[in-house]
Structure formats: structure tokens, C-alpha cells
Automatic annotation (TrEMBL):
Position of the signal peptide: none
InterPro entries hit by this protein: 6-blade_b-propeller_TolB-like (IPR011042), Serum_paraoxonase/arylesterase (IPR051288)
Gene that produces this protein: Acey_s0012.g1814
Superkingdom of origin organism: Eukaryota
Name of this protein: Arylesterase
Organism: Ancylostoma ceylanicum
Length: 210
């Protein structure tokens, strides 16, 4: 009797887990492909693009490339920032941006990016960066046609940052998409369906959990 009860409880829990996993993987959804025009490949970027900041008034986009996120990548994968100019005539190419300032180039692997226009009209970028040891920071840049490093922000609340949005010249909201730091623990975290993400607000001086 007890064995039968435990067996049916196990089947019920398994069915609930599989149903939740199906919903999570969006197997039940239909996606309609909408394109505003012809799809063209942007040249110049070798190691993929993770995120884009669109500066509409300037007619450009800033792209992050070469992200290192949990899974190891080849040693030749270089973290870079690119500029794409929408005013190009007949070409579709992103150009690498020169970064001025003191930082560890070997451990610069940009991920999420956001921007804000300051009171003086200068564009300020906030960029999440991961090292090959999977340590995290937010790098602040002043953007012209080059990038000037203003400062680097590190905090223990940057557990596994993925994206962020600027809310002022000094403040931003950042999302951690989980807590696992290795491929194996990330798989366990994903399969367990335990919500381990978090949101952090940086007020310009201190981080606060939201």
C-alpha cells in the first residue's frame, strides 16, 4: 500500500516536472518571423556579438563581442567592442573600438551593455565584463569614436550578471541570471528549476538587492 502510494506520488511529481519543463522550453508556442527588410550579415565580428546599445541620435550601435560565460572558450577568443555606423553606403561592417585606459585586456570579455546621455551630452556606457576565472565587473566608459575607461565597479552582489540598464549617469539596475559558476552546477541549477536569479540596484556608491 505504502509502496503504491509512493510510486503514484513519484509519477505525479515527475509529470508536474516534465510539464513545467515543456512550458519553460516553449514547445507549446508558435513564433512568427517578421523582418523589416533584407537580412544581411554584419562583417568584422569574428567571435559573436552578445549585446547591442543603439544610439539612435548618432545613428550608430555599440556591440559587445567575445563573451566568456561559464563554458570555456578558445584562447584566441578576444573580448572587443565594436561600432556599427548605419550611415554606411553599400557596406555592412562593424569596426573595432579603441579602448583608452588601464584595464586587463586578456580578461576583458564584455557581455551586457547599456548607455545613457549625460547632462553635458556625452554618451556614457555601462558594460558587464567577465574574466576567464569568471569574475565579474561593470566597466564605465565615455564614448566618442573611441572608448575612454572612466571606472570599473566590482561587488559581491554581481553573482552572475547578464544584463543591465542605466537609470542615471551613475546608477544602473543589473540582473543576475543565476548563481552557478561552473558548467556542471549551471546544468543542475537549470534542471532543478530553482529560481536563483536576482536583481541589483547600484546607486552610484552602493549595491542594493531588489
Amino acid at each position: 500500500m505504502i509502496r503504491s502510494l509512493l510510486f503514484f506520488l513519484f509519477l505525479g511529481a515527475l509529470a508536474a516536472y516534465l510539464f513545467k519543463m515543456v512550458l519553460l522550453l516553449d514547445f507549446n508556442k508558435r513564433v512568427y518571423n517578421h523582418r523589416p527588410g533584407s537580412c544581411r550579415q554584419v562583417e568584422g565580428i569574428v567571435h559573436g556579438s552578445e549585446d547591442i546599445a543603439l544610439l539612435e541620435d548618432e545613428g550608430i550601435a555599440i556591440l559587445t563581442s567575445g563573451v566568456f560565460f561559464i563554458s570555456p572558450r578558445e584562447k584566441d577568443v578576444k573580448g572587443q567592442m565594436f561600432l556599427y555606423d548605419f550611415a554606411q553606403n553599400g557596406t555592412f561592417k562593424a569596426e573595432p573600438l579603441k579602448i583608452n585606459g588601464k584595464y586587463d585586456q586578456e580578461n576583458f570579455h564584455p557581455h551586457g551593455i547599456t548607455h545613457i546621455v549625460t547632462s553635458t551630452g556625452t554618451v556614457r556606457l555601462f558594460v558587464i565584463s567577465h574574466t576567464r576565472a569568471f569574475e565579474h565587473s561593470v566597466m564605465v566608459f565615455r564614448q566618442t569614436r573611441q572608448l575612454d575607461l572612466v571606472k570599473t565597479i566590482r561587488d559581491e552582489k554581481f553573482i552572475r550578471p547578464n544584463d543591465l540598464v542605466a537609470v542615471s549617469e551613475e546608477a544602473f539596475i543589473l540582473s543576475n541570471d543565476g548563481s552557478a559558476q561552473t558548467t556542471v552546477t549551471n546544468l543542475i541549477e537549470y534542471m532543478s528549476l530553482i529560481p536563483s536569479g536576482s536583481v541589483v540596484y547600484y546607486d552610484g556608491k552602493v549595491n542594493h538587492n531588489i
